Amino acid sequence: MHECADDMTSCVGASLPRRLSRVVGMLLGLCAAMPSRPAFAQAAVRVAPAISLVGAAFDEARGLLVIVGDAKGAVAQTWEWNGTAWSKANVTAPSGRDEPLLAYDRARKQVVLFGGYRGTKFLNDTWVRGGAGWRRVATKGPPPRGAPAMAYDSRRGRIMLFGGNDGLMGSPLHNDLWEWDGRRWSRIVSDGAAGSPPARALHALAYDEARGRLVLAGGFAMKNGKPSPFDDTWEWDGTAWHQIDVATPGARDHLAMVFAPDRRAIVMHGGANPDVGMVGD
User: Which of 2, 20, 15, 12 is nearest to 269 (CA)?
Assistant: First the structure.
């Protein structure tokens, strides 16, 4: 199962792959933004955040990995990793929620948070944090949705958001494209527009800074009443989508992707496929 109709956090089939992909995404993002190391190494920490289903982004200005989540409390928890230790940030925060989207806005030196869900209620508010507490800056933009993907376009100075669904298993999927300019959201490609990638959820989005392209991969759509993962790659050049004919790692959703400056390439890891289970490559 990829989505949960009632209690999201108790749906093991959906939450476990998500948790693992979120952790992998955080590690990839941190490694991409910090000096190269020969391999992953488990850090010995005395205090660690006891939360799951978080969003994550690396705050380049402050040199910290930021994670936000937890729908159990009145407000979401914010934790920061400085490369050595975790610390809980006791700051003004968004309402409690699971799986918000986070991305770092380099032009404005802010971490941007969008949406998430609490129980079966999906959110579409936008918050920013530039060092002090979180500040809500928009309640309009992309409609509430589950499992979209977001990335920062450094050439254009915009946060980009693509796809997702209406939140529940089997609910309508989207293939619209939105951008955040630091003040407001604008929809630049409508749902169902010709030439767009097929509608999907649980996909990955990353910006290729070497080539100036937004790259989309994976995700799933429903086929004959069952989730069917995608095995395609698309690029947005700032004007139009283009499907790229390249060898892929295989069909999957719940994957993590990030641009690695030292490699000048996008790195993908993990995911899930209903036919083979968890993917660890």
Answer: 20
Tokens representing residue 135 in the block: 């500040």
**DSSP bridge pairs for 146:** 165
- In angstroms, the CA 204 to CA 106 distance is 20
pLDDT tens track of the chain, all 281 residues? 344 433 333 333 344 344 444 444 544 454 445 445 556 677 766 667 888 999 999 999 999 999 999 999 899 999 999 999 999 999 999 999 999 999 999 999 999 999 999 999 999 999 999 878 999 999 999 999 999 999 999 999 999 999 999 977 778 999 999 999 999 999 999 999 999 999 999 999 999 999 999 999 999 999 988 899 999 999 999 999 999 999 888 999 999 999 999 999 999 999 999 888 888 88
* Structure tokens, 242: 């283009």
Q: Which two tokens stand for residue 93?
A: 């925060």
- Burial zone of 26 (CB within 10 Å; 0-12 exposed, 13-18 middle, 19+ buried): buried
What radius of gyration do the chain's Cα atoms show? 17
- Measured distance CA(99)–CA(270) in Å, rounded: 18
Q: What pTM value is reported for the model?
A: 0.84
| Sequence-distant (≥ 6) Cβ neighbours of residue 32 within 8 angstroms | 58, 258, 259, 260, 261, 262, 267
